[in-house]
Fold this protein.
Amino acid sequence: MIIENTGLNGVQSELEHLDDSAEQAGFVRWQWEYYRATYDLKLSDSASGHDYFLRMNTRAVEGKLESPHAVLKIESIYIGRATFPHGMEYESPIPGPIMNTAMQRLEQLKQLLA
């Protein structure tokens, strides 16, 4: 599920600042290459036992990710349920408490990047 209207789409930040801010909000930069990076936040639903990942895609608009001064632009933000062994399922409904936590973390990240 793509999350719209977060206020983060299109936001630009230097890599070092984005990494620090994302980490404070609980995100980890897992996947990255020279021109793009994906930040993930794992959310666990104790009621169902399912894990969900809030994922934020970014792309370099200046420089490469080798430099902490590279400027990244936030593109898509989406959430999905983890499937065994390494997949993500984006069509299933997201439980209310998980979605609430996701939105709180996105708001926290937005404030940190402001």
